[in-house]
């Protein structure tokens, strides 16, 4: 009997409803604070990642463009008059105007026919530059351009069949197309060869030993649509004898270009540069706007 009375008199400790509600509220506050810190850190990470992406994109884009712009008009020869011996009269043969621009790339006749990936975006500028680029080589002996393969002094020269090149001496310079190339030798296309655009009869000329031969570097820079529906910086460049649009840097949203003519006091838009003054353009200001695919972040870079 006494054991039953003792058991019946025991008291069980626990939480009251008020205590439980207070504990739940405190727990929610702690969890909410931790969640807020996590979300803030995640947003900070996304923002920093986006900023890094756009900075990298704008830096790469500017470095690639600057390389072409700084070399505009350079032939590697002792003179700047380069004769065109190809059958083409395309923009890349115009050495009298080694730089030319448009305020709206869709108005550029070299770009207006493009469609799909690489189609120019309205409201963005375009710039055309012509020069020589890449590694040069030299003739091992005096040679006619048309005929047998020309032996080069450099056995590791990297030329390819169909490539457009510039051959030059201090007295003469000529644009021509190769029909064949191998380690240490090149062959210029004869006027009768079935290669596009091919060379004309004026390619027949003899050049002395140590004549330089260098790849032609001709490019048009602009912003166009890319294969995934975004926008990218594009470079229309010669691949063999054909101008081909190449995607260079993605997520470039805008390209604005202004030009300085020798003797002028300020930079101006392309539309205000008279056609006769383009050969006198001595500087270009390029403003690139890049955006991130991670989050809504943009940055601009002026070069």
Low-confidence stretches: none
Task: Tell me the radius of gyration.
Answer: 32 Å
- Coarse shape: elongated
Structural class: alpha+beta
The amount of beta strand, in percent, is 25-35%
Mean pLDDT across residues: 84
Order of H and E elements: HHEEEEEEEEEEEEEEEE
| Fraction of helical residues | 10-25%
Tally of separate helices = 2
Main sheet specs: 11 strands, mixed
Termini separation (Å)? 99 Å
Total strands? 16
Question: Mind explaining what this structure looks like?
Answer:
The structure is a single chain. Helices cover 20% and strands 32% of the residues. It is of the alpha+beta class. The strands form three sheets. Strands 1, 2, 3, 4, 6, 7, 8, 9, 11, 12 and 13 form an eleven-stranded mixed sheet that branches. A three-stranded antiparallel sheet has the order 14-15-16. A two-stranded antiparallel sheet has the order 5-10. The termini are far apart. The mean pLDDT is 84.
Q: Which features characterize this protein?
A:
elongated, 11-stranded mixed beta sheet, 303 residues, alpha+beta, 3-stranded antiparallel beta sheet, single chain
């Amino acid at each position: 009997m006494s054991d039953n009375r003792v058991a019946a008199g025991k008291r069980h400790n626990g939480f009251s409803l008020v205590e439980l509600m207070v504990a739940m509220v405190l727990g929610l506050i702690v969890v909410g604070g931790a969640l807020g810190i996590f979300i803030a850190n995640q947003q900070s990470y996304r923002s920093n990642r986006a900023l890094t992406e756009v900075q990298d994109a704008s830096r790469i884009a500017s470095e690639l463009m600057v390389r072409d712009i700084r070399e505009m008009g350079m032939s590697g020869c002792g003179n700047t008059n380069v004769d065109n011996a190809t059958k083409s009269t395309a923009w890349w043969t115009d050495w009298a105007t080694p730089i030319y621009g448009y305020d709206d790339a869709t108005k550029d006749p070299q770009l207006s026919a493009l469609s799909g990936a690489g189609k120019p975006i309205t409201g963005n500028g375009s710039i055309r530059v012509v020069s020589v680029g890449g590694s040069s080589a030299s003739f091992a002996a005096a040679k006619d351009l048309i005929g047998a393969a020309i032996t080069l002094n450099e056995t590791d020269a990297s030329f390819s069949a169909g490539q457009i090149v510039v051959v030059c001496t201090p007295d003469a310079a000529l644009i021509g197309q190769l029909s064949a190339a191998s380690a240490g030798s090149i062959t210029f296309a004869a006027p009768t060869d079935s290669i596009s655009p091919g060379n004309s009869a004026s390619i027949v000329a003899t050049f002395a030993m140590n004549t330089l031969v260098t790849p032609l570097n001709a490019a048009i820079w602009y912003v166009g649509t890319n294969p995934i529906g975004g926008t990218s910086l594009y470079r229309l460049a010669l691949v063999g004898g054909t101008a081909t649009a190449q995607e260079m840097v993605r997520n470039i949203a805008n390209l604005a270009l202004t030009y300085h003519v020798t003797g002028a006091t300020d930079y101006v838009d392309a539309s205000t540069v008279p056609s006769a003054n383009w050969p006198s353009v001595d500087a270009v200001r390029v403003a690139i706007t890049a955006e991130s695919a991670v989050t809504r972040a943009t940055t601009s870079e002026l070069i």
